[in-house]
Write a structure and sequence with these properties.
Helices cover 48% and strands 20% of the residues. The chain has 300 residues and is of the alpha/beta class.
Length: 300
Amino acid sequence: MQEQVLLIDDSLSLHQLIKSHLADENVHVHSAYDGASGLTLAASVRPSLILLDVDMPQVDGFEVCRKLKSNKETSSIPVVFLSADYATTDKVRGLELGAVDYITKPCNFPELQARVRACIRTRHHFEQRAMIDGLTGLWNKAYLDDHLSTQFSLVKRTGTPMSCIIADVDELARINAKHGWQFGNEMLRTVSQLILGQCRAEDAVCYCGKGKFSIVVSGMDRRAASRLADRLCAEIQRHCATVHGKDIGLTCSFGVADSFIADQASLLERAESAMSRAKQNGRCGVSIARPARTKLQMAA
């Protein structure tokens, strides 16, 4: 998929030059020739990078950058200033406004290509880090929401099923109270590794906080996914019964739902309801979400 780059500059010839020199890169360059249209385009395109001229009529680049950074829809987009004036004060001002780099005109195009690649690579790195849970190293809730959307698009195109498994550590508060939250965190990391060890590389294992894990399983209906949940339940119970000579008895309760009985908006809710039922049934077990009853069945 092509990266989207926005060039805001009042020089038509510069747009043509930059587009030609970035033609071999995996980018699509959008053009805006003044600050106002640049701000509008930035909000609608949400590019991976903005190349922004400093010296423009009406609204200069510094003011455009300030507005970009004050808008929550565009604040995270990296901005690289382009300027014919390499005054140190201007460079400092641009960096203080939130720009990540400064390139002087006339452009050294091999340098421009390298900086564009570096900025996009850095953005991807930070975006990925923003979707990783710091405690467990698993994907977090933000990634889960994004991944579910992608997987449901695949379900609609191919008709293949997908499932969601919700796992919740039983009595985590008791473990923390008895052994300390540092030990509780260690146990959460242990559970994370046990889950990863049983899942496939294509399964998305996410930690959503407060002892709750979500696993998005592609290509499996709820029956097949429940067998995976059974293995996870037994594995966690076996490995977490005794830890460091302490009788912990840590277990997890599991709920499973699939795309045959739930849409994107309700999949997590159905899996969580099933998990709550597993808790009510005595914990350390697996419950599968049931298909919703039809109006005719309810009337009968």
